[in-house]
Amino acid sequence: MNNPIIALLGNPNVGKTSLFNRITKLNQKVGNYPGVTVEKREGQVKANNKTYRIIDLPGTYTLFPSSMDEEVVFNTLVNKENNFRPNLVIVVAEPTNLKRSIILYQQARELGLPAIFVINMIDEAKEKGISIDIQQLEQLLNTKVYQTNARTGQGIDQLIKNFDAVPPMYISQFSLPAEANDALEETKRLFPLETEYHTWQYLAKGEVSFLSKEKNQAIQHIRDKYQLKAEKLQKDEAILRSKCLDQSLATIYAKDETSNTNKTNTIDKILLHPIFGYIIFFGILFLIFQAIYTWSGPAMDFIDGLFGDLAAYTQTVLPPGPLTDLLSNGIIKGIGGIVIFIPQIVILYIFVSIMEETGYMSRVVFLMDRWLRPFGLNGKSVIPLISGVACAVPAVMSARNIENTKERLVTILVTPFMTCSARLPIYIVLIGLVIPDTTYAGFHLQGIVLFVMYLLGIFAALFSAIILTKIIKSKHRSFLIFELPTYKSPDWKNVALNVWEKTSSFVFGAGKIILAISVILWALGSFGPNDKFSRAEEIVQQNNPNLSAEDLDHEVTSYRLEHSFLGYLGMAIEPIVAPLGYDWKMGIGLISSFAAREVFVGTMATVYSLGDEVDIEDEATKTTVLSKMKSEINRNTGLPAYNFASGISLLLFYAFAMQCMSTIAAVKRETGSWKWTLIQVGFMTGLAYLSALIAYQLLK
């Protein structure tokens, strides 16, 4: 016998996830629903000599979907063939918005699903001056009503013990819109389902994804025949249900309006103020940005040093050879390249989770939606976009909080345009090379150029969003219709769990791609096609017999890189990058910086025999790197390799190019699609190439 499936159904912000965590005692897993990128949370609980499968359905206001998340809810409850169709639905409500939850409960029962009703956060009822006659409510719903407080665990055990209790037969007192009676009767002949409302769902839905094309066309023919619109049928049902419930709830639900001057209204007067609201929000964003950018620094330096030391230790205890080099420089450093992002992801998601838990995230959406919607983005898109200035990896992951699938995808695709911290070392070196160190009207010219590079990232992201919004089609229209939840203190268990889920999904999901690419890049740089690579030390010593041990080591490393597969690949792409003003050495830098953008500076130091460890924060080292790069001659043009034209060209290339395998891995993980990932890489690389080409050809 299969384990019974119990689905939690409810509006956003009713504490459904907290209830899910309490019921499953964190014995749960997170994945995606088949065929879509919507997150599926599933857990287990053992009780009554059974093991129950608990599914936390995405939050929804109605069974008629307007987003991919809500589409999942519709398919799970309405499609009788769905593997996740529940044996019992637990409709979760909270005292403030009882009517909306009752409508969800009615829709579930009228589909023929057994359901019970839970009022969560019951402790808030008294605080908000709300009184509920539970006995009358049970008579209205014809089921047992449970009262819980997921934060404290109140009522959870009683709820679990009654998972096997069969709800009484439900006889709906609701009449569907009369104008659709004839169409409904004809649809019932086409779909003789167990309940009339089940058939109504097909008629009022529009296109039903799990029905065949022929059946969808047959339903559309009926709608056309009776001149009915699916959206109008849904609206009529919602209005009728609401009016009907207003009468029923008059004696069940009462709210003392004098208590409405509560802390939520008081706080909102400040946080939603047309001036102070934005000042406070951008102050919080600034704090988040500083935390990701600065607070994570010591932890990232520690991880970087730890894996560097581990790689060095491996080389000392194991015999020299390709396997040792693979382990130390390929695998260990590849894993380090995954783990180093953990501090940034953890810090970002601590902030995002707290904002979600307290109810402030809904205010963020409200404040920013009007500014971002003209670009095809969502109010929640501001978090990924701003976070992208620190690092695109956690920023891309934070787009999960955007419910609308199209807006989430557009946000993910444009976020890497934001100027991340990994571009900063490249900008500092290139601006130092080609921009005069002068001041105009009290402003430092190099600083102005750096600021312009950040603005370019913002403009590129917004401009690309406009284009993508026109290209990407969605059957769901996006509206900003929601009720602002009341403020509450965060459930720290939920915060910790959310941070753990997001971090582990990156490490074990995107990490596989990062590690694979790290090993490939290591192999390309560690082997060569001829004896020039294997005899590098001998050849360098013959050509330069008087070098010191340190200089010899640098020259050998540079010579090996030049004659490795990576070096020959750099020479092979030289005809492609030559119109941009680059030579083969810069080509190697472009390829190797695919591992991470900032690797470009270290690769150039290796190519120019300066060693592979470069700290541009050290003034002496930075001066050495700049002087060597300034003196470098492009063999194709006979001019300095880093002149004004080629420098600006490189700046533009790195401003727009998708030169980061970690971001690519994160995008693949979040979109669940190589198609969109490759489209993003192609679009960004194409824009980078075109911009760099135009700049060089105009300035040379």
Folded structure, characterized:
This protein has 700 residues and is of the alpha/beta class. It contains 32 helices and eleven strands. Strand 10 (439-440) and strand 11 (443-444) form a beta hairpin. Helix 20 packs across helix 30 (644-656) and helix 23 (536-543) packs across helix 24 (549-562). It is elongated and about 95 Å long. The N and C termini lie far apart (75 Å).
Class of secondary structure makeup: alpha/beta
Contiguous low-pLDDT stretches (5 residues minimum) are none
Q: Give the overall form.
A: elongated
Radius of gyration: 30 Å
Give the quaternary arrangement of the chains. Answer: single chain
Average pLDDT, rounded to a whole number, is 84
Number of helices: 32
Q: What is the strand arrangement across the widest sheet? A: 2-3-4-1-5-6-8
DSSP strand count = 11
Main β-sheet description: 7 strands, mixed
Beta strand % = 5-15%
Terminal-residue CA separation: 75 Å
Question: What level of helicity do the residues show?
Answer: 55-70%
